[in-house]
Design goal:
The chain has 18 helices and 11 strands. The protein has helices at 12-20, 22-42, 73-89, 120-125, 128-137, 162-172, 187-193, 197-205, 216-229, 234-249, 253-256, 269-282, 317-323, 373-376, 379-388, 401-408, 425-435, 440-454; strands spanning 95-99, 115-116, 141-144, 148-149, 178-180, 284-286, 298-302, 328-332, 358-364, 392-399, 417-420. The strands form 3 sheets. It has a 6-stranded mixed β-sheet with strand order 6-11-10-9-7-8, with helices on both faces. The protein has a 3-stranded parallel β-sheet with strand order 1-3-5. The protein is 42% helix and 11% strand. The radius of gyration is 24 Å and the shape is globular. 47% of the residues are buried. It is of the alpha/beta class.
């Protein structure tokens, strides 16, 4: 939400590190929380709406996906608690989300309402495990998920359900901290329950804080009227205010905010070192330094969009490094000319792409508001097509390990390839400097370009 902070790899990267090196992942998760908390504090913030405690056990989840800390209850519980500890060390309040668990959905709640069949037995064994761990460890707040759990409350999504927020979260799980709604302008809510009364329903259900109603003043007036009329007992407001004051009392104010609004550098040396360590620890590479100079080569980059594109500028390593060894850049995105043709076995319109080797760089991850676009693109078939024609110079996947694992099932062992969960310029540079074969003089020139970009 704030420009200028450190761009860290997504949390799922730590979940994958945890599989083979748990102690390192635990250390990194705590540092991740400290970095986030420290930079929030420098911005004047005292509350971070994280960690995500959803378990991403559905690879097709379009909205949680790499934002989750893992795919197993124990992994998510352990790493999110370390992240929370990191925030706490910096005097910042934490928030577990999205209760009671958004990980097993295939619908983005920004766009529509996910409906789940899970009963309480299933939730207790799986989705609720990280939230229980968060409550036991002292999480400051919990954010609701815009989810309809038919077997708990067939009529109301969790955000508007007294059964879920008060009876389950408060009474059964014993959570005494703040409950905050997810944004009420998300279409899972606004399409069906829009208007000022949505805020009243959420407050009556047990939410203490209302996030982003469609009309803030209208929501305030509606809640006030509900309190005055007795529709909502005044005790509900008093309890919410008490919880807010308790949360604020936990913060060491001398440390928690930049009170004098004095300019300071958001990113320090420690943050930069953490970013690099996370990238180094999560990169996978096969066949280093195998992609050589070729003046007829094509650098085909797939991105979500270019208006603007957060991962690409004209100086980005994903553009500048391949072009330094002769590869011409071509962007593939949903607002440009389609690279596809109507042939399921050979989906790339190869005649449009010249006659030389093709280096694929695919920026693929679940992103809010984009639905399942990246999952429907036929890149597996395209890779097979290029390999059959002996034209696949190399492959890099930035983001989704789910997509990378699919590609690995068809990728030939001699093809230079790499995976990195991070999509930031630093990740691009580290991956490409390992795959491309550059003369020393060219490498020095590229380093200078990159340094100019990062400064």
């Amino acid at each position: 939400r704030f420009g200028g902070g450190t761009w860290l790899v997504p949390p799922m990267a730590l979940g994958n590190i945890f599989k083979h090196n748990p102690s390192h992942a635990i250390e990194l998760a705590r540092k991740y929380g400290q970095c986030t908390g420290r930079q929030a504090r420098k911005c004047g913030l005292n509350w971070v709406l994280g960690p995500v405690c959803d378990i991403n056990n559905n690879p097709n989840n379009p909205v949680i996906n790499l934002r989750a800390w893992g795919e197993e209850p124990a992994t998510v519980s352990t790493l999110t608690n370390e992240f929370r500890k990191g925030l706490e060390l910096e005097g910042i309040l934490s928030c577990a989300k999205h209760f009671p668990g958004h990980g097993d959905t295939c619908i983005d709640s920004h766009l529509n309402l996910p409906i789940l069949e899970h009963d309480l037995t299933r939730l207790n064994e799986h989705e609720l495990v990280p939230f229980r761990a968060a409550i036991d460890s002292g999480i400051d707040s919990i954010m609701t998920g815009h989810l309809l759990l038919k077997n708990l409350d067939p009529n109301n999504p969790a955000t508007l359900s007294k059964t879920i927020l008060t009876e389950l979260l408060r009474n059964k799980l014993g959570f005494e901290g703040l409950i905050v709604t997810d944004s009420l302008i998300m279409q899972a809510i606004s399409k069906r329950y829009g208007g000022d009364q949505t805020a009243v329903m959420a407050f009556a259900a047990g939410a203490d804080l209302i996030l982003m109603p469609e009309n803030a003043q209208g929501a305030i007036n509606a809640i006030c009227n509900a309190l005055k009329s007795g529709q909502i007992p005044m005790e509900r407001l008093e309890n919410a205010l008490t919880r807010k004051n308790i949360a604020l009392s936990k913060i060491a104010f001398s440390k928690s905010i930049n009170k004098n609004n004095i300019y300071c550098e958001i990113v320090d040396k420690e943050d930069k070192e953490l970013s690099k360590e996370l990238i180094f620890s999560s990169i996978k590479v096969q066949n280093k330094n195998k992609i050589k100079f070729n003046s007829s080569g094509l650098n085909l980059i797939r991105v979500d969009g270019v208006l603007p594109c957060s991962v690409l500028t004209k100086s980005s390593p994903s553009l500048s490094l391949p072009s330094s060894i002769g590869y011409k850049n071509l962007l593939c995105h949903n607002q440009g000319v389609s690279p596809w043709q109507n042939d399921s076995s050979s989906p790339l319109a190869i005649d449009k792409l010249g006659k030389g080797p093709i280096f694929l760089q695919l920026f693929l991850r679940g992103n809010p508001f984009l639905g399942t676009q990246h999952q429907t693109e036929p890149w597996v078939k395209a890779i097979q097509q290029l390999q059959k024609l002996k034209r696949l110079a190399g492959l890099v996947v930035y983001g989704s390990h789910y997509q990378w694992e699919k590609f690995c099932t068809v990728l030939e062992s001699e093809v230079p390839a790499a995976y990195c969960p991070g999509q930031m310029p630093e990740a691009q540079y580290e991956v490409l400097s390992r795959l491309l074969s550059l003369p020393e003089k060219q490498m020095m020139q590229v380093n200078l370009l990159y340094k100019e970009f990062t400064d």
